[in-house]
Amino acid sequence: MASRHFNLQTRIIVDTHRFDGLILTMSFIARTPVLLDRKAYSSVYMTNYLEEAYNQVRISLMKHFKWSRVGTLVFQQTLFTSQITKFHDLLKDNNFTLVTSGIITDTSQISEHIQRLKQYDARIIIGAFRSTAAPYIFCEAYKQGLYGSKYVWLLGGSSMYPDWLEFEDTGKYPCKKYQIEEAARGYITIDHRRLSSSTGVTFSGWTPEDYNTMMNQRVKSTNYSLSRSHPLAYDTAYALAMALNNTAEQLHKNNASLGDFNYGDSLTGDLIKASLENVSFDGVSGPVSFSNDGGRIGIAYIEYNEDNIRTPIATYDPRTDQITWMKDDIALFKGIPAPKDRFTYVEIYEPYNMASFVIVILLNSAGVILALSVLAFNIMFQNNKHIKMSSPKMNNIIIMGCLIMYAAVYINCIQYARLYSPESKDSICMLKLWISLLGFTLAFGALFSKTWRVHVVFRETSLKKRSIRDHKLYGMVLILTLIDLLILIPWTILHPLIDTEIKVKSDSLSDDDTIVTLIYTDCRHPYGIYWYASEYIYKGLLLVFGTFLAWETRKVNVPALSDSKLIGFCVYNIVVVCAFAVPISHALSIQQTNLMFVLMSLFTTFCTTLVLCILFFPKFKLRNESGDIRFAQSLQSRSKIIESTCVTNTVFERFGEVTQSTLTARAPIVVSEKIGEVVNNNKASEEKKETEKLRKELVAEANAIAKLKLDISKITENEVYFHKVNGKYVVFKQADLVDSELLSV
């Protein structure tokens, strides 16, 4: 029985005879997937295309474009829900991912479902709904930005009429017409042709176009209109005729005929169904054959939709599971590559700036060369009187501290460019910390100890000699280093810094399909802040005290016997740089890694190099200098500035020694002689007052010279001797040269 009833009417008919397996039902209109249930409808066959057949086309398209994750949006109707349910099963069978699925029961829910699709980053959207719901859906897609070149809407063509966008912009929908058109631009439909586009002659002897022309001519002379499904009806009759012919041939072999058929003849009924399932021919609607569940097997068309124009791009043959492209596959997407089904997440390490890296390496290497040159100079000229009076061994400690600071910059470069193995990344963190702190302690600690010695010497008010030799300064540096070790060792054991990766999305490198995440590395530990605080407190107090000592000794000017003023400049330099560097290192964000690397490296290199230049460049000039040497008291509490002049280097080396008692005894004699002269030559009371004033000045001068002698002895750690010649004092290393004829110089 051929039927032209709609789905509901078809179901009513077949439900009436569903328990009578001998009633064969064929329909060219029905396309409800419910009729494919062979347990309930074992003898129903349909020549119309079912939308459920689109599922396999969708799977093939996903494979072709390498999509593996989709979202679905379906209207609550059996025609649509049944096909999408089976599509979900196919996704699972093919190891594809369903990111989310929305079932629309009312248009008021569309916003919620579109929002969920966007939330789960559904790029490929499989839709199953009618044209009447499409304006509401695409309006919401427009509002939420779920459209454009990075999204694909894949819909069923038979439910989406090509002219669904031809409506008046009367305010019926929440969006303007152009907004809906923009959101729907380029959607893809899967559809079947009721009239084949083939130019070949079909089984009936007509080409599809000739058949269509013939039918239109016949209808013209009648009062009837031609249904657009007439090719399906024509092929339905042909399929049934072929099945009956085949059944008749088989019955004839058994000496039977169709004329003997009755509704109790189950054998003949089974033969008819078997023959129908084996039918295969090229009809006017396309290839005609039936699946085991009675559905039509036919060619599907993949179409691109824009401006109400539906353009076929490819065909799908379910018999071979092949897509045949009429045009290049990128024609589906207006000539651009197919959208990706997800964001591609790319993680890359923050690229380092090669120019900055090279500049830091070169500058730091220049500093290392300078430090090694200064070290060689200091060792080579350690017996030179100017170098020796500056404590060359303490200077060597300063240089070693500077070299270690340069090494810390190299380690910072290694960490910045990630020139280390993954296994050693945590070790690099602690190594840089150790080297930085110990290098600072050695360099600044030695400067601090030398400043402390100058301060102690020039604060001494008693004439009792107090010698501060270098070994005491070594001990001070050792104590400062031990304090560092007391912090670093438990820090390393209990809470070592870990090379931590911080991931930050890069908007500048990301695009519509790719999200680039930059990986920054930083040495961190949850308890690291407490250990840093202990170091900052310790080093901060050291810097404050060092600044105080440098300020207190700021007026000391003993270039040959000590470099106290230069040491003060070095201390100021370190304090100022630390005052800037430490806050900046914590103020810069992790995204400013390049800037932090450059600033911290240059701060360290600049400060270290400046210390070496301030401390040692003057010594290059002094090593061969033989001119006068001036001494001045340092502290503000001293009101008298005593100036003395030494003999040349030759005299310094050859002159003899004056004992302390000689100097002490000589001063009163000179004073007495001068007082006698004043008393004898001045008789007036005014002259007596002047004489008393002069006497006091001479006594003060003698005491000051004695005190200065002790100060210089403490600094140089050598005994020195004074003799006054022509109103100026000469310094001697040997007492036996005091009375020699060299005094005439």
Automatic annotation (TrEMBL):
Record membrane topology: Multi-pass membrane protein
GO cellular component: G protein-coupled receptor heterodimeric complex
GO MF annotations, alphabetized: G protein-coupled GABA receptor activity
UniProt entry tagged with the keyword Hydrolase: no
Keyword tags: Cell membrane, G-protein coupled receptor, Glycoprotein, Membrane, Receptor, Signal, Transducer, Transmembrane, Transmembrane helix
Main location: membrane
Record's subcellular location: Cell membrane
InterPro entries in the cross-refs: ANF_lig-bd_rcpt, GPCR3_GABA-B, GPCR_3_C, Peripla_BP_I
Pfam family name, one: 7tm_3
Coiled coil region boundaries: none
Domain G-protein coupled receptors family 3 profile: 413-622
Source organism, top-level taxon: Eukaryota
Annotated TM spans: 354-377, 397-419, 431-452, 473-493, 536-554, 566-589, 595-617
Keyword Phosphoprotein applies: no
Listed GO biological process terms: gamma-aminobutyric acid signaling pathway
PANTHER family per the UniProt record, alphabetical: GABA-B RECEPTOR, GAMMA-AMINOBUTYRIC ACID TYPE B RECEPTOR SUBUNIT 2
Record's protein name: Gamma-aminobutyric acid type B receptor subunit 2
Protein species of origin: Lottia gigantea (Giant owl limpet)
Higher taxonomy: Eukaryota, Metazoa, Spiralia, Lophotrochozoa, Mollusca
